[in-house]
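Tokens as discussed.
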């Protein structure tokens, strides 16, 4: 679907469908008022008859409205004007796109992007509308023999902004939304891919293929031999039980000058996490194919950044491995010497993410990064703490925490900070090694972050736990593409800071 932004008046449009908001109770939005006048009160008369109340979720499709140049008018319920929340706005846009896809109209102009959401501007409204529409149109059906196609899908959707001066921002929002959505879509594809297809080697192949599509991207792939040379023993211990060998992909996006320090993103890439010898329970074990969602989000973010051609250096590391039980698998009781030299006693082979990440994070030091963010489906405890709406953010550094929270708010890809106090470090004590790989039953998300913090002393670092937000379960099971929007926004903001600095 193609998207456009415009600043036009509704009565002059000659298109397949014009989309207009109706507030509770039976009140037209200002664009609706314009059309009402032109139609000599036709819309008002309908409202008075009670055909549409204006409640969220309601729609009414009209054909051949008197004096109107467009073929159809779609009235969409927007609820109470003063109570329009972000959640409502997205619901309204979803309903609009679903309905338009059913009408048979091939193109439409939508005036709902003019709706006023508290504390949000037209940049936000346009960007959210386009990201929402892309999200709705996403399908993962490559393994279906019979694909369900929309009969006459909408091809072109224009969002209008009410003021001429907002047009430039709206165009930027369009560009950002398209790039983010493309990153989200590839992130979803990778994450949804079954684990017999999406192995560490598959991820490495995809990372390699990015170089063909973008001039500014180069990729290095590290295999087991190279990682062993680097003494990444902790990472390799996790992988050793699987016949699918580990590969670490390092994707360089070179948009900045060579002396500019890169932003480094490190994604947990467990293409399947069975738990290993500390085997997981069978319920929902299939969902552990999503344990590479962090790596997928890094991949998606690099794609978005490359599409936007941002003037910044970004390095994405996909720390891929498969955690399986076998006679070669690592076991509880094993003591591993990490790349950093610190030793770890394995108490649970299902706490494997941190063992892979710690070596990837040590590896990241060589890039003298401006900052490092790791993204991981790291702990079930994160779901207990924050559920499925909000990702956890843990960092010892105030500056980057603030920047990530700002980006999270701008992109509506929500994150919430959990505390990181030195006290929690005590939970990782081991009688035999420098630390244990688990910190006991309480504060699981924080102790996991504490573990990682021991490997990130050389730079500014933040950790995002996306265990609850990377995919949805149940009948609509599927990857969400989060937090590509948040990460891309964070990087966009960095490029703006740079401009302001110079
Ligand atoms: N990948 C899981 C975390 C997870 C579980 C994410 C369920 C999303 C849904 C991780 O590797 C894991 O197994 N973590 C353990 C850690 C524990 C053994 C300390 C967990 O959270 O149970
Ligand atoms: Mn695990
Ligand atoms: Zn895991």
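Sequence:
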């Amino acid at each position: 679907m193609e998207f456009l932004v415009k600043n036009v008046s509704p009565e002059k449009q000659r298109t397949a469908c014009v989309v207009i908001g109706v507030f509770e109770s039976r009140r037209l939005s200002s664009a609706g008022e314009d059309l009402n006048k032109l139609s000599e009160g036709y819309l008002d008369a309908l409202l008075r008859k009670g055909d549409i109340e204006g409640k969220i979720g309601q729609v009414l499709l009209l054909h051949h409205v008197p004096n109107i140049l467009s073929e159809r008018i779609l009235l969409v319920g927007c609820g109470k004007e003063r109570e329009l929340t972000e959640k409502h706005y997205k619901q309204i846009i979803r309903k609009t796109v679903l309905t338009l896809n059913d009408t048979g109209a091939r193109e439409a102009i939508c005036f709902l992007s003019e709706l006023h959401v508290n504390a949000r501007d037209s940049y936000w409204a346009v960007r959210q509308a386009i990201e929402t529409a892309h999200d709705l149109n996403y399908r993962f059906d490559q393994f279906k023999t019979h694909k369900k196609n929309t009969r006459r899908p909408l091809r072109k959707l224009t969002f209008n902004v009410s003021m001429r001066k907002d047009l430039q921002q709206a165009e930027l929002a369009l560009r950002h939304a398209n790039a983010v959505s493309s990153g989200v879509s590839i992130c979803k594809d990778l994450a949804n891919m079954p684990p017999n297809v999406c192995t560490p080697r598959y991820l490495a192949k995809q990372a390699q293929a990015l170089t063909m599509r973008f001039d500014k991207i180069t990729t290095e792939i590290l295999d087991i031999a190279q990682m062993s040379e680097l003494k990444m023993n902790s990472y390799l211990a996790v992988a050793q039980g699987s016949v699918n060998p580990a590969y670490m992909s390092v994707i360089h996006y070179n948009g900045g000058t060579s002396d500019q320090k890169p932003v480094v993103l490190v994604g947990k890439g467990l293409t399947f996490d069975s738990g290993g010898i500390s085997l997981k329970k069978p319920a929902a074990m299939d969902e552990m194919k999503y344990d590479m969602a962090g790596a997928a989000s890094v991949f998606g973010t690099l794609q978005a950044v490359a599409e936007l051609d941002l003037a910044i250096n970004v390095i994405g590391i996909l720390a891929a491995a498969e955690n399986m039980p076998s006679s070669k698998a690592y076991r509880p009781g094993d003591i591993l010497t990490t790349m950093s030299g610190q030793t770890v006693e394995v108490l649970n082979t299902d706490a494997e993410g941190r063992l892979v990440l710690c070596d990837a994070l040590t590896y990241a030091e060589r890039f003298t990064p401006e900052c490092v963010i790791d993204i991981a489906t790291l702990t079930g405890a994160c779901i207990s703490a924050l559920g499925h709406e909000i990702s956890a953010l843990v960092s010892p550094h105030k500056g980057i925490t603030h920047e990530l929270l700002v980006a999270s708010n701008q992109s509506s890809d929500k994150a919430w900070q959990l505390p990181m106090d030195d006290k929690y470090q005590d939970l990782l004590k081991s009688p035999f090694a420098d630390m244990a790989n688990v910190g006991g039953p309480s504060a699981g998300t924080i102790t996991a972050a504490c573990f990682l913090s021991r490997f990130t002393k050389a730079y500014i670092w933040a950790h995002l736990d996306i265990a609850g937000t990377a995919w949805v379960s149940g009948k609509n099971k599927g990857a969400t593409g989060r937090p590509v929007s948040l990460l891309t926004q964070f990087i966009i903001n960095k490029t703006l800071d740079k401009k302001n600095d110079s």
